[in-house]
Design a protein that fits this description.
Layout: E1 2-4, H1 9-12, E2 22-24, H2 35-45, E3 46-50, E4 55-64, E5 67-72, E6 85-87, E7 93-95, E8 98-101, E9 112-117, E10 126-127, E11 138-143, E12 158-166, E13 177-180, E14 191-193, E15 199-212, E16 218-230, H3 231-235, H4 238-241, E17 249-250, H5 268-280, H6 284-297, H7 303-314, H8 328-338, H9 343-362, H10 366-389, H11 393-406
Parallel strand pairs: 10-17
Antiparallel strand pairs: 1-2, 3-4, 3-6, 4-5, 5-9, 6-7, 8-9, 11-12, 11-14, 12-13, 13-16, 14-15, 15-16
Helix pairs in contact: 5-6, 6-7, 7-8, 7-9, 8-9, 9-10, 10-11
Length: about 400
Amino acid sequence: MIWSRFNSLNSYLLGTATVAAIVINISMAANAKTAQEVAEIAIPITVQINSNLGDGSGVIIAKNGNIYTVLTVNHVVEDSTIKYSIRTNLEKDYSVIEVVSLQTTDEEPDLAILKFEATETYPVATLGNSEQSVIGSQIYVFGYPATGGLFSTERASELSPGLVTSRPKSRPEGYTLRYQAVTWSGMSGGPVFDSDGRVIGIHGQGEFGFAQTNSGDVAPIKTGFNAAVPINSFIRRLSDAGINPSDLVLDDTPTVSSPVSTINPQSAEALYFRGISYLDQGDAWEAIANFNRALKKQPNNTPEIYFNMGIARSLLVNPHEITRNSNPIKDYTKAIELNPGYADAYYNRAHVFYQNSLIYQKMADIARANKQLQKAIKDLEKAAELYQQGGRIQSYQDTLNFIQKLRP
């Protein structure tokens, strides 16, 4: 057995001299865990956070007697006038007895802690070292999505695998752990695990990005990129949270699994991931170059590559020259041809058609403007249909609202 601790925990705790060590069995970290094994760890420590304002998720990080502490994102519990409740994997409901926000400005991490009292016994999460989660690292997002028309306590838990795409030094609200994974509304506040089943982040952002438009504005597009607040950002705020470090289980043992390499990639998969990484960092030209190299190696059955190529081209739009723009439409169209059920491709292509209609209006070419507008509405109608079929209720409703905005 080994004594495990964060190397820099003393500095995180503002000079605290004594840190209680947590005993970790080294055999537990000897091999990377399967997705099923991570899910088995996640289920008993991940909770629903419910209210009449909306749904979220959280993770149990500490226990003191019968009082449990849950870590989540602040935007799930920011309304102090609302009553919140916790539902555990045992389908037990508990009233939240305390909410402590750790965010007072947009520059501070989007974090909060909740407390509830229970006589039942629940395990607590093992917190890892988020600095080990570099580009290419395997991660798993866990939470309770509001999908398929299920809300509040009807929600079921879900595990979503992904890879870290970038580690920016700073982002609003502390979202500096970014990854590509499938997430849904209701998973905000849920834990992000590394390949050893340790919590290395708290999920809170996903799905939408913004791109330059032909009208000179920015427009929301579906990206598939998500972000979490790294767990180390929480460790730095322990004193603000009123948490004793000895109440936490910390393990910074180096992870066994190696990240996907972006150095001299040769396979289509590695080239695609390097393109994704560049795209997440805003380098559209390098992203496109790697996507094209991936397509040469694997030209068929690659709708995701074309979809992300469309996103990359959206970053290169010239709002002053519509006829010479980098054209995302052809990429989204190819993605749809390869996958007729690609709802996000329809949604993003609709945005391009809509922005084209605006620029044609400015050019007083009303006929072309109307034609582009009708194409946008048609794509949005298809996207809405697919979102509804897939149980993506929030995306379905957002798309309906957009259609209503575009119709005369």
